[in-house]
Amino acid sequence: MKLKNIVLLSLFMLSATFLTAQEFYFNMNYSMAAPLGETKDFIDKYSWRGVNIEGQWMMNPNLSLGYNLGWNVMNQKITGEFTDGTKTLSGTQLRYLNSFPIIIEGRYHIGESIYDGAVTPYVGAGIGTIYNMQRTEMGIFIVEDKKWQFGVVPAAGVLIPVGYSSMVNVGVKYNYAFKAGDMIAHSFLTINVGYVWGR
């Protein structure tokens, strides 16, 4: 079974557990990305284009289980040599990376309750799949690779109350997708800011 199917099946099976939780929250984040590692060798330009949606169900006052679905877009225009197999070209290149994490994430919230009216820091970790679309254009020459890669995503952040059952999320995530076939191991750090609502 493909990795993406395993992750999607896991999300479906976990939904039964989620429904029994007394408290939950959802949030939509604006996401900025800083390429790291081998991704930075391919594109080293900071990206301002991204979004992610998260849902967390409280298993107890401090522990939650949920998901993270995201989309980050990175691109850069560079001049230099490009090698593909036995071919090497020199000129202006347009490089693109579209990254789509599908992650199951657990969190530990520091405090009595996420709804006690206090600022609530959290730390978390997730596993799943990250679908990466990597593309290089040089004139009429185009090289593109698309892969589902196993991913791990540690996270940390803070929930700031702004009203009844509503908060602001400010957090960071380290997205790491392991090498798959001829696709490099992609990694990047995201800074996420968004609105949270729940019960």
Folded structure, characterized:
The protein has 199 residues and is mainly beta. The protein has one domain: Porin (Beta Barrel). Helices cover 12% and strands 68% of the residues. The chain is built from two helices and eight strands. It has helices at 3-20, 37-42; strands at residues 23-36, 49-58, 63-84, 87-109, 120-138, 141-163, 166-177, 186-198. It has an eight-stranded antiparallel barrel. A hairpin with a 2-residue loop joins strand 5 and strand 6 (141-163). The longest helix has 18 residues, at 3-20. It is elongated and about 60 Å long. The two termini are 36 Å apart.
Order of helices and strands: HEHEEEEEEE
Radius of gyration: 19 Å
Examine the coordinates and then state which fold CATH places here, giving the name of the CATH topology: Porin
The main pleated sheet reads as: 8 strands, antiparallel, barrel
Instruction: Calculate the terminal CA-CA distance, rounded to whole Å.
Output: 36 Å
Strand sequence of the main sheet, in spatial order? 1-2-3-4-5-6-7-8
Low-confidence stretches: none
Shape: elongated
Helicity range of the residues?
Answer: 10-25%
Care to count the β-strands?
8
Mean pLDDT: 88
Assess the beta-strand content as a share of residues. Answer: over 45%
Write down the CATH class: Mainly Beta
| Proper CATH architecture | Beta Barrel
Structural class assignment? mainly beta
Determine the number of helices (DSSP H or I, runs of at least 4 residues): 2
Total of domains: 1
